[in-house]
Design goal:
- This protein has about 110 residues and is mainly alpha-helical.
- The protein has five helices and no strands.
- It has one domain (about 20-110).
- The N and C termini lie far apart (about 35 Å).
Length: about 110
């Protein structure tokens, strides 16, 4: 039996835990922000910030949902962090190092 690259990738994905899959999402967002910084393209930066904003909008929505089973103090901390990142995404000159740092810390915590 031979594996195509897509079936191999599918096999790899199925072996990841849900937390690890979430960590991968943060990793992808971080990589696109780094690429935008390296290429210094306003279009690439706008796209990367929009993607990161969608990620953190989803995080914020998840933690403010009353059915979320995380402890309330943790949900409040994550919501506060989400608002901080979203403010940076919307800033005229966003602090990309801050956004990347937060993304990396969350990804590392999810991989742990």
């Amino acid at each position: 039996m031979s594996f195509t690259s897509s079936s191999a990738a599918g096999s790899y994905r199925r072996q990841l835990t849900p937390k690890q899959m979430e960590a991968e999402v943060y990793g992808r967002a971080t990589r696109t922000l780094r690429e935008a910084m390296d290429q210094q393209s306003p279009v690439i930066l706008a796209r990367a910030l929009a993607d990161n904003r969608r990620l953190w909008d989803a995080v914020q929505a998840a933690v403010i949902d009353p059915s979320n089973r995380l402890p309330l103090p943790l949900r409040a901390q994550i919501a506060s962090l989400a608002r901080s990142v979203l403010r940076e995404c919307d800033a005229e000159t966003p602090d990309l190092d801050h956004i990347i740092g937060v993304n990396e810390q969350i990804a590392a915590a999810l991989w742990a």
